[in-house]
Amino acid sequence: MNPVIALVGRPNVGKSTLFNRLTRTRDALVADFPGLTRDRKYGNGQLGGKLYTVIDTGGISGDEEGIDAAMAEQSLVAIDEADIVLFMVDARAGLNVADEAIANHLRVNQKKTWLVVNKTDGLEEHSAMADFWTLGLGDPQPIAATQGRNVTALIDKVLAPFPERGEGYATPAVDKGIRIGVIGRPNVGKSTLVNRLLGEERVVVFDEAGTTRDAIEIPFERRGRPYVLVDTAGVRRRKNVSEIAEKFSIIKTLEAIKECHVAIVVLDARSGLVEQDLHLLDYVLTSGRALVLAVNKWDGLESEQREKMRADIKRRLGFADYADLHFISALHGTGVGDLYPSIERAFKAATAHWSTNRLTTILQDAVGEHQPPLVHGRRIKLRMAHQGGSNPPIIVVHGNQTDALPEAYKRYLTNTFRKVLKIRGTPVRFEFRSGS
Ligand code: GDP
Ligand code: GDP
To answer: Start and end of every EngA-type G domain (predicted)?
Structure first.
């Protein structure tokens, strides 16, 4: 599991500026679960051979309601999930009572905490630091998040105790079978579905292993084929009501997405589609994971509710329409067995290999059918295509002036490749390269 860094501090000290600098913000996942007063943002970053996750806590206001309340609701969760806390203060604003209150919390916390003094640009470092020694959180670390000054050096220092992990965000190897992640917000029925998937006829479940925080792996076999279930929040183990209240962990969800080949994203037909479903789906897609959609709690629904759910999915999940869609009842087991063929198909598409010949033929046929437009009097030429990667598949198209290719034409090509190659269940990435 990658080290997790939480950014904590009062509003306006520069947390989101630093967050954006440290992460590939394209991948950021926003936690906007009901009950949170503010959003938490999760993003991944990399420094040399080390990967990390950053949580931006949005800010502790230190207002009338009391620092304790705000802290408890928002930042404590982030601190809880983190290995490292970066407590940010503002060199320009100087020391503030809210800073002191936050520091009091952090001093009793067991987490490794760094005191980061931001906005030191244009200031004399020594005098800018002087105020903050009194917080009793060790050496103040001067940075300027907007310029990126000292940021790399700080992260390097912060990550020093953590080992290098060279494997990047690549998908795990297929040694013990297809790895399935069951993903979804709290209460959609993940735990019920996991137990169903494992409780199916002719399913043999092997040992459950794993630590408390890493994603738990459950190897099993169905009809002689090996699979590994990547359990997110220990759903399999939850047995009683009090455990159901157990905190939903975004970190574990991110980990499961990273560790699986195929994600089953579970939606709840009773509560309908909500923002958080879209965030999770978006994250699965940007991670390049193969996808199966399971609309759960389909049992006993009124027909209007069914119609509404279908319409919502059509309207809002267009970006995921290449995934197989299943309407299931995890509670009764209806439709659960049908998930397996979709999982197999999605995995097969995600790991397929196509020859350069085949891809180039598809490209040329597509171009023959519809020519790319003229740019400055010259026609954009697309010559050949080859596969640049797998899981998710990457198709690299070579030609001239490809920078000028309109989005609509790219979409046309994407759809054509998808259709001809019968790709279902996985995102496909396209890269366009010019060279003459
Ligand atoms: P957050 O509320 O803690 O997330 O703070 P933001 O990242 O939104 O930053 C608040 C303001 O401080 C913005 O106007 C930033 O441009 C500014 N800011 C952030 N970092 C720096 C810095 O290193 N130097 C200066 N001068 N301004 C900064
Ligand atoms: P999780 O938090 O996503 O793991 O959700 P759980 O599996 O704990 O399920 C949350 C609640 O939804 C429980 O009360 C389940 O009994 C109920 N539930 C799960 N699946 C179904 C279903 O298919 N139909 C109905 N009606 N209820 C379900």
So the answer is: 3-166, 178-351
Cis peptide preceding 392, ω within 30 of 0? yes
**Domain 356-434, CATH class in plain words:** alpha beta
Q: Are the C-beta atoms of 82 and 55 separated by less than 8 Å?
A: yes
Can you tell me the ipTM of this complex? 0.74
**CB distance 16 to ligand 1 below 6 Å:** yes
**Distance from Cα 13 to the centre of ligand 1, integer Å:** 6
Taking CA atoms, 137 is separated from 79, 158, 295, 418, in Å, by 16, 14, 48, 55
Domain 174-350 is classified in which CATH homologous superfamily? Answer: P-loop containing nucleotide triphosphate hydrolases (3.40.50.300)
pTM score of the predicted model: 0.73
Pocket of ligand 2 contains residue 333 by CB under 6 Å: no
Q: Which atom of ligand 2 is nearest to the CA of 185?
A: 3
CA-nearest of 257, 247, 322 to 80 is: 247
pLDDT tens figures, 214-270: 457 788 899 889 999 887 655 444 444 444 444 567 777 888 888 899 999 999 999
What are the pLDDT digits (tens) for 113-162? 999 999 999 998 888 888 899 998 989 999 999 999 999 999 999 999 98
- The third-level CATH classification (topology) of the domain covering 4-160 is Rossmann fold (3.40.50)
145 lines ligand 1 (CB under 6 A): yes
Distance 76 CA to ligand 2 centre (A): 28
Q: Is 174-350 in the same CATH topology as 4-160?
A: yes
Nearest residue to 225 via CA among 344, 351, 350? 344
Closest approach atom of ligand 2 to CA 328: 23
Question: From CA 349, how far away is CA 425, in angstroms rounded?
Answer: 7
Ligand 1 atom with least separation from CA of 122 = 26
